[in-house]
Amino acid sequence: MENVKKLVYVGIAIALLMLVEGCPQESQKAYEEMGLSSFCKPCEKLAGFIPPSQINNEIRRMVGKNKRRRAAENVAIQEARGVIETYLVPDFIDGGDCPEIDSEKWAIDYSYKRGRAALHKGIDIPQPRGTPIRAVAAAVVVGKFENRRNRKGIEIMLRHTPNQTVLPFWTYSQYTHLQGMSPLPIGAKVRMGDEIGKTANTGKMGKRVRRDALHFAILYSESPEWSNDGRVVFPKKGYFMDPNAFYRLEPPYDSQSLVKLPSDQKQVPVPYMKADGTLVPASTKRIWPYVCK
């Protein structure tokens, strides 16, 4: 009898997923409540997509998808795959007045905030609530998540090809704590500088109130393959990158090599877009996620 009930529940979940277009939170919730794994149906039509089953456990743990009791092991994997402090700092070209990273810098120890071993896998850039967030390069939307049960809050994720960034690999830009779900559908093509969401402080925080800020992260892979299981985007054979390194014009890009750079190479010239759409420099393929003055 129990087996029959499970089959009925599975059938209901599959029906829900088929009825709702996109990567729906309704069907995702149904899957979660039944202990099942959902995935993004529209993603199947996009270049490079592979089923979630083809993503190995190390990559899943790299992005933090694992049990609390294995937090220290997750951190070790993340460090091996790029989440280490590089001490790079942005140097906005031509003295641009751009929103700055606050104290929540790349790869700092977050154990005191989480109550377990944890690292900050991105940078935080505070801005007033509702400030538009911009696509850092031309891309395709590959992930949209509400993240109701974790600290990331509302999220959108973009996939950039080497041609779109002039980098020698595929990159994935992640934007979290958004004010509301982006109206852009999975599979939407965006241009560099397009608005992809607005700044806010969504995400579970316990008793603390998070300031309004964008959490911005970059992942990359030499493989074009990736997946989306309805909750997380996984680049196959992926690594995390210091978001400051995303703006470098030449290698290295991996954190282990960046750490070894001499101090006079730690400043990264960062391109940006002005409010009137002007690019600095005009030829750039990558920009800061906020407009600058």
Give a brief outline of the structure:
By secondary structure, the chain is of the alpha+beta class.
Secondary structure layout plus pairing:
Layout: H1 2-19, H2 25-33, H3 57-62, H4 71-80, E1 89-92, H5 111-114, E2 123-126, E3 132-134, E4 139-145, E5 154-160, H6 162-165, E6 170-178, E7 189-190, E8 195-198, E9 213-221, E10 226-228, E11 233-235, E12 239-241, H7 255-259, E13 267-270, E14 272-273, E15 279-280
Parallel strand pairs: 1-13
Antiparallel strand pairs: 2-9, 3-8, 4-5, 4-7, 5-6, 6-9, 9-12, 10-11, 14-15
Describe the model.
By secondary structure, this protein is of the alpha+beta class. The protein has a single domain (39-280), classed as Glucose Permease (Domain IIA) (Distorted Sandwich). It has 7 helices and 15 strands. It has helices at 2-19, 25-33, 57-62, 71-80, 111-114, 162-165, 255-259, and strands spanning 89-92, 123-126, 132-134, 139-145, 154-160, 170-178, 189-190, 195-198, 213-221, 226-228, 233-235, 239-241, 267-270, 272-273, 279-280. The strands form 5 sheets. Strands 2, 4, 5, 6, 7, 9 and 12 form a 7-stranded antiparallel β-sheet that branches. β10 and β11 (233-235) form a beta hairpin. The termini are far apart. Mean pLDDT is 87; it is low at 1-28 and 30-37.
Give the strand content: 15-25%
Looking at CATH, which topology would you report? Glucose Permease (Domain IIA)
Based on helices, strands and strand pairing, what is the structural class? alpha+beta
CATH superfamily annotation? Glucose Permease (Domain IIA)
Q: What's the CATH first level?
A: Mainly Beta
Helix content: 10-25%
